[in-house]
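Anyone up for a design puzzle?
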């Protein structure tokens, strides 16, 4: 991880990491954890199970409206091709979970979207060290790792690196509650019931922290990643009863460029908030935590470059 960090070169990256978060949590703390699950959000009637969005993403940078986790989409420029979805191909089975079809979004009236979350054990997170501090979520805050993303097959390894770096800061765990890779896979971080950590000057207490893998001062936000970020935020907005209007970037609270100009721009112009609102209006987002074999299979596929 250090290598990665250093490689990122930028002082910004290092500074950010230093300054960023990090913190505790215990494993299962929150709803999302557990092996199965489905925490969720409003749910809508019923729709064909997966209505996925067929609109696939365009290679462009961001996809305003349509999106879906599952759909893959392309990644931004920087990223070669990959697509993926959070679920897609895999159909994991296992007792506990199964991958979700995909998230639906767009048109109001659609069905609740589904979001697969890779549990800590599946991405081989280290155990939490030290006590966690409880807090109550009051706002939704977006970060970036400030490390230029390379191959998405290495995303799980990067997650471990970030955690290792954060624990090296003396923090009990990775600083964020959830992390999203370039292809839209969502990784469970510290329990949401625990406040995050940061080296910047703001109190992370009350902040639901989602971090996107990448350096958005230097690269665009892949459509699949933006879609998954919106899913996580939509889920959290309903789950913790905090409105989409609280969606902001780290830079809105502390002296940092995080989450990078490109992602910050999507927050500032209302694009992200609007995507979150659309998901909620469409029935919300249901999460399914991938644990056990299902989680291991998912991570193995990501690491093999299949997803
Ligand atoms: Zn940040």
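Challenge accepted. My sequence:
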């Amino acid at each position: 991880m250090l290598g990665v960090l250093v490689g990122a070169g930028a002082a910004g990256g290092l500074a950010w990491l230093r300054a960023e978060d990090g913190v505790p949590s215990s494993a299962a703390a929150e709803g999302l954890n557990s092996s199965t699950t489905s925490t969720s959000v409003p749910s809508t009637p019923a729709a064909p199970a997966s209505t996925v969005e067929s609109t696939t993403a365009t290679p462009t940078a961001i996809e305003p409206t349509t999106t879906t986790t599952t759909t893959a989409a392309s990644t931004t420029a920087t990223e070669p091709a990959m697509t993926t979805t959070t679920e897609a191909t895999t159909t994991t089975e296992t007792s506990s979970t199964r991958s979700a079809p995909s998230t639906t979004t767009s048109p109001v009236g659609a069905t609740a979207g589904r979001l697969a979350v890779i549990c800590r054990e599946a991405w081989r997170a280290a155990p939490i060290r030290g006590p966690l501090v409880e807090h109550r979520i009051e706002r939704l805050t977006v970060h970036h790792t400030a490390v230029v993303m390379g191959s998405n097959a290495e995303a799980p390894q990067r997650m471990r690196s970030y955690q290792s770096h954060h624990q090296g800061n003396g923090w009990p765990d990775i600083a964020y509650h959830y992390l999203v890779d370039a292809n839209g896979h969502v990784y469970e971080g510290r329990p949401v019931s625990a406040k995050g950590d940061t080296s910047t000057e703001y109190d992370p207490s009350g902040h639901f922290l989602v971090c996107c893998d990448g350096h958005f001062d230097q690269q665009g936000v892949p459509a699949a990643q933006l879609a998954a970020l919106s899913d996580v935020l939509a889920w959290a907005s309903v789950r913790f009863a905090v409105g989409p209007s609280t969606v902001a970037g780290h830079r809105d609270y502390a002296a940092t460029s995080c989450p990078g100009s490109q992602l910050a721009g999507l927050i500032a112009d209302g694009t992200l908030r609007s995507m979150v609102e659309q998901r909620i209006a469409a029935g919300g987002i249901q999460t399914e935590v991938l644990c056990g074999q299902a989680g291991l299979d998912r991570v193995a596929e990501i690491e093999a470059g299949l997803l």
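A detail worth pointing out: The chain has seven helices and seven strands.
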